[in-house]
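Example record

The entry below shows one chain as it appears in the dataset: sequence first, then structure tokens.
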Amino acid sequence: MGTGVSTGAAAGPTLAVVAREAGVSVPTASKVVNGREDVAPETRRRVTEALDRLGYVRRPRFDATKPPRLVDLVVHSLESSWSGAVLHGVEEAAHDAGLDVVVSAGLSRTRAGRPQRGWLDKLTVRGSAGVLFNLAELTESQYAWLEHHRTPFVMIDPVVEPPPGVVSVGAANWQGGVTATEHLLALGHERVAVIAGSRRKMCSSARVAGYRSALASAGLTPRAEYVRGGGFDESVARRRMGELLDLPEPPTAVFVCSDRMALGVYQAVMERGLRIPYDISVVGFDDLPESRWTTPALTTVRQPLAEMAATALRLLVRMMDGERPEGTRTELSTRLVERASTAPPGS
């Protein structure tokens, strides 16, 4: 993906070029770059679009004789208990390392579909020593910016496969899918369905691959109609569960690739007058706090979110000190947490 202007060894376009492209003065363009509020929304939009179009970057401002003890955590959203667990892990590890953490929910997209620049602009002003990205999907130009400025960074559970050499931390999603499915098979279920997350997300495809592998190992062929996509969305999972229950031969058990989607599955089952686990068994994935609050409590695969985040922070500290991890991908193990939502078929 080209930006139209090189952001490699060359310095790239000057602020004067950006200002001319946006039809504003250099001081006005500078206000936008520095996050000043005294700029009209339409002017800010023009300048921001020019910054993106031209690939403008600015060097971090910090005193090289006093290495900063500040790192950034850029998260997709702050509204879920998933993010809360990640924040907890980063905070504890940062405290042990004597670091301060700045949290930004900065990877949302504009109406035009482009990633917003907020975290990138603020990073340059703060002069952070490194960055953690949680559930992030960076653009080619953002990777180039980080490389250009030699900014250490680690991905926590990246959405898609990162470029070669990028350090990331995640969970053993494939093994988690195997474990969830094997648990249902061991209870005697043969008609086992799966409601997957987004197809393009690494974690979802790995969990479904684990489901297929467990069935194959048991001598079972996955039925095409038993594999449904839920997009990690509760309402979509509810509809997909309804579709499964409408089949001439509905499943007796379902592996749902996130606890959030499992809440939608519970609702769909309840609306049909059916009971979990007596009529259908359900296994989730994540082990979020809400999985313990459901009725019945949800059997789920625990991925160690706080531990993943803490591991990523420790890797980042080593990279900030000039070390390079031996491998680029670290996977922490998952485990089944058995509660009350699973039982033998027809029990």
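Notes for this example: Residues 108 and 115 are 6 Å apart (CA to CA). Confidence is low (pLDDT under 50) at residues 1-11, 60-64, 108-115.
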